[in-house]
Design brief:
Order of helices and strands: HHHEHEHEEHEHHHEE
Distance between the termini: 56 Å
Number of helices: 9
Strand content: 15-25%
Strand order of the largest sheet: 3-2-1-4-5-7-6
Number of domains: 1
Helix content: 40-55%
CATH superfamily: Vaccinia Virus protein VP39
């Protein structure tokens, strides 16, 4: 019988410990197991923002800083946040960094013009409150671009990826990766959760024949929760 995936605070502790352990070789393993495609996916994520030069963009679950670097190269002002101190210690992007839980960001309301994340959605304790927190910190009219794996069944993802990760880094962490895709709801549900949180015009882009997916959305000027009630 398959081991149950952790939930709630147990998941938060497990994810933080796992990323602390794999931080030193995280970039190397990503490049090897995706054949370098993750570089193109991140650049596509940044292009999808289409914000004005100089816009402040939060990289949520910034890890070692790949997206922060891409944001800076695109002319944005990046801010990185991650739950894992190990990841932050290996972040060489030069961006301001925060240790933070995605559900409790130490940022003021409407303090950033955009936000991105890379391969993080399935690691949040819950998506609805994470999206609500993004809606709180992103300015009305701002944009988000959220990159993650899709649901790629098959031998490579379930058998080869854990073997590569085990050889180059922490075997237990890379056995978790294929299983963690089960945390992701179907794309339509993710879009609905983003809409309920306060994001409009949600679009999903399939990348590399469905291996990865990108959700792009605009922060609504007002949300249902923010509209005044009828007299």
């Amino acid at each position: 019988m398959a081991t149950m995936l952790p939930q709630g605070e147990e998941k938060a502790r497990a994810v933080r410990a796992m990323f602390d352990s794999i931080a030193p070789r995280y970039d190397l393993v990503n490049r090897v197991m995706t054949f370098g495609m993750d570089v193109r996916w991140r650049r596509r994520t940044v292009r999808a923002l289409a914000l004005a030069p100089g816009a402040t963009v939060l990289d949520l679950a910034c890890g070692t800083g790949d997206l922060c670097r891409d944001l800076s190269r695109a002319g944005y002002r990046a801010i990185g946040a991650d739950l894992s101190l190990g990841m932050l210690a290996h972040n060489r992007s030069g961006a301001p960094l925060l240790q933070a839980d995605a559900l409790r960001l130490p940022l003021a309301d409407a303090s950033v013009e955009g936000a991105v994340s890379g391969f993080a959605l399935r690691n949040f304790v819950a998506l609805a409150p994470a999206f609500a927190e993004l809606a709180r910190v992103v300015q009305p009219g701002g944009r988000i671009a959220l990159l993650d794996v899709a649901k790629p069944p098959g031998f490579y993802f379930t058998r080869v990826v854990p073997r590569i990760g085990g050889l180059l880094s922490d075997p237990a962490a890379y056995r978790y990766l294929p299983r963690s895709v089960a945390y992701l709801p179907p794309p339509g549900e993710i879009a609905s959760l983003l809409g309920a949180a306060g994001f409009g015009t949600v679009t999903r882009v399939s990348l590399s024949a469905g291996v990865a997916q990108l959700f792009v959305a605009t922060r609504a000027v007002t949300t249902a929760a923010e509209r005044p009630s009828a007299a």
